[in-house]
Amino acid sequence: MNEKELILRAIEIKKNSYSPYSDFAVGAALLCADGEVFTGVNVENVSFGLTNCAERTAFFKAVSEGKRTFEAIAIVGKDTYLSPCGACRQVMAEFCDENFRIIFAKNENDYIVKTLGEILPFSFTEVDMK
Ligand code: THU
Q: With CB atoms counted within 10 Å of each terminal CB, which end of the chain scores lower, N or C?
């Protein structure tokens, strides 16, 4: 699965976004180390703080199906390189090392790639608990 294919999965799933309050649909596609892909959308709630971002939806789906090792996630919002919120970065840090790739995509031909180490340096991890 290459980057363009992963972005296309994120674009396709975005139509299932439940975002009546923000009207801001987001789609994500998470590539597991074994090649399987889990998609996710943002799921909003009238109690706004309960909203779950597309990235976390994809992670929680994958983790609840037993996946623990991940390579990359593609994220598609409107027409910017949509940057994951802090909560989603922290969830990524729970399961991924600094080489995990985040693909910020406007579309399958226009995207940038950063690593988790770049977008969440000096993160809080289990090492800090020892
Ligand atoms: N959102 C995501 O799903 N992912 C992001 O990276 C940023 C924000 C969602 C949450 C909310 O439903 C809407 O976008 C506006 O914040």
A: C
